[in-house]
Write a structure and sequence with these properties.
The protein has 181 residues and is mainly alpha-helical. It is built from six helices and no strands. α1 packs antiparallel against α3, α1 packs across α6 and α4 packs antiparallel against α5.
């Protein structure tokens, strides 16, 4: 079943935003991202640097690919695979009871510890990737459709940012409470 092109386009644009922002944060803070990867304890030391360099490149490739109609399905597939990798990495460390690791999503100034909320967020983003992979219905977008695309994309990106800020604030509140205890 093909989804409406508005849904496919909004999904692709939101995912593009998420992956471009994440990739840029990692590129601008490579040493911190390398330390984050090391903290996950999932890779041998000789693979840390190649993975550290590859992940932001793949995120940017997915983010940019989601902006171009002909590359949207494979870019959405790449985004889905990355999200699966992130979900598994977080779950492994949650099962190890290692919650104090920065997720590595938003750079050092927006530290987020690992939590079930991050798994849920990434599962929701995986759902968007699945929607973006679908071929949209063959109809032209009208003026109102474009208005809906712009507003829905802006609202979804705003909700994503608010959700992330709540997770960051949760970590900061824990620190404040432990300092006052």
């Amino acid at each position: 079943m093909a989804s409406d092109p508005v849904i496919t386009l909004v999904s692709a644009l939101v995912l593009s935003y998420v992956f471009v922002v994440a990739g840029m944060h990692k590129i601008h803070h490579l040493p911190e991202f390398l330390a984050t990867l090391k903290n996950y304890q999932l890779f041998p030391d000789f693979l840390l640097l190649p993975v550290c360099l590859l992940v932001p490149v793949l995120e940017l490739a997915a983010g940019v690919g989601l902006l171009m109609p002909h590359s949207t399905p494979p870019a959405a597939m790449l985004a889905a695979l990355l999200l699966c990798f992130y979900i598994v990495a977080i779950l492994i460390n949650l099962l190890r009871d290692r919650r104090d690791i920065d997720c590595g999503c938003l750079g050092p100034s927006q530290r987020q510890g690992l939590s079930e909320w991050l798994v849920l967020r990434n599962m929701l983003l995986f759902g968007l990737a699945c929607l973006a992979m679908q071929a949209g219905a063959q109809r032209e977008l009208a003026g109102f459709d474009w208005l809906v695309v712009v507003l829905a994309t802006a609202l979804a990106c705003l909700c994503y940012n608010i959700g992330n800020q709540l997770l960051v604030n949760q970590e900061k509140l824990k620190l404040l409470r432990s300092d006052h205890a």
